[in-house]
C-alpha cells in the first residue's frame, strides 16, 4: 500500500536512523523477482534505446534484454528485472563497485519501487510514518553491534529522505489496532505500549529473554481491560507501571530444541508458494548447546535491538488480532534467530561470534521479512489470542508450562 503524500512525524529506531547504503550488493544478488512499474519500465526501455542506460553484460541469459515479461503480473507491474543463475540482477555492476547501472546513469528516482525502499519496512497510520529496516542487509545487521548508539525512538531520521514518499502498510483509514479479538485499542494506548516495548528492550539490566517475558506479562495485563472502568490509556499506564516493577530475573526457561523448532515452523509454514522453505538443522539440540548457548549472553545488546526492530513499526498491530500476537511474533523472531545462529555455527564448526551472529540476523530476516506471506503469518500467529493465558505464556517459550 502507498502513502500518496509525505507523512509527519517520521519515526525510526536510533540504531536504524543513520542508515546509508554501503553497496554490499546483498539485495542486488538475492535472486528476488523485482517488479518494475509500467511507466518506469517504459522510461527505462526508452533510456536504453537512446543510450542513456547501459546494463552491464552479465552473460548470455541477458542477451534478450534485462527485463522479463511476467505471465501473471501484479497490478501496475510492466516487467520483472532479470537475474542470472547466481541471483544477480541484470543491472548490478560489480566492476563499478557494486553499483546499480540504473542508479548510476539515471538517478535514484528511476529505481523500481522495491529497490528505492529497501531495506525500509514502513507502517503509516494517523500517528505518522514508522520505519524499521530489514537486517538481511549486512549494513543494517552490522549497526546492531554499534556500542555508541543507545536504543530508542528518534524523529526525522536520516534514513527517511526529506520530502520522499514511502510505501508500506497504510493504515490511516483502518480501525486502530486490536487489544484482543473484538475489542479495539485507541492509537494513544497503542503508542504507549509500543514505546514501552522498545524501552524495555533497551534496558541494560535485562536479557532479551527477560525483556520479552516482561512484555508478555504486561500484554496480559493490558488486554484484560474492561469497558466502563478507567480509560484504556490509564489502564495501559498502570499495566506498564506494574511491568516496570517486576523482578529483574523472573526465571526464563532454557528453550528446548523442540520448542525452537516449533516456533521456527510457525514462520516456515507461512513461506509463500514457490519459495524454498528452510528447515531447522537435524542436530539443532547438540549445535545449540555446544556452540550457541555458551556465547549467547555476550550478545544481549544486539539481540535486544533486533527484537526491538520486530516490535517497532510492526504490521501485526493491524494485521493481527491483539497485543498477544505482537509479543508472540517477537518470541518467534527470537527462536528463528537462535535456530539460524545454530545453523551458522554448525556450518562454521565454531562457537557463536560477531560474524556468525551477523549472518544469523541476515538469515532470520530473510525468513521473517522476505519469504512468508504476511497475511498467512499474521493468521498463524494470531491463534495465540484464543489460548488461555497460561498456554499463551508457555507458547512463547519464555515461561514454563
Describe what this molecule looks like in 3D.
With 401 residues, this protein is α+β, with helices and mostly antiparallel strands. The chain has 3 domains: 10-19 and 117-170, no CATH class; 27-111, no CATH class; 178-395, no CATH class. It has helices at residues 38-49, 101-106, 113-117, 138-143, 187-201, 208-223, 232-245, 257-268, 284-296, 300-311, 316-319, 323-348, 354-370, 374-381, 389-395; strands spanning 10-13, 35-37, 67-68, 77-81, 92-93, 99-100, 120-125, 128-133, 153-155, 168-170, 178-180, 183-184. The strands form 4 sheets. The protein has a 5-stranded mixed β-sheet with strand order 9-1-8-7-10, with helices on one face. A 3-stranded antiparallel β-sheet has the order 2-4-3. Strand 7 (120-125) and strand 8 (128-133) form a beta hairpin. Helix 5 runs antiparallel to helix 10 (300-311). The chain is globular and about 70 Å long. 44% of the residues are buried.
Task: Describe the protein's topology.
Blueprint: E1 10-13, E2 35-37, H1 38-49, E3 67-68, E4 77-81, E5 92-93, E6 99-100, H2 101-106, H3 113-117, E7 120-125, E8 128-133, H4 138-143, E9 153-155, E10 168-170, E11 178-180, E12 183-184, H5 187-201, H6 208-223, H7 232-245, H8 257-268, H9 284-296, H10 300-311, H11 316-319, H12 323-348, H13 354-370, H14 374-381, H15 389-395
Parallel strand pairs: 1-8, 7-10
Antiparallel strand pairs: 1-9, 2-4, 3-4, 5-6, 7-8, 11-12
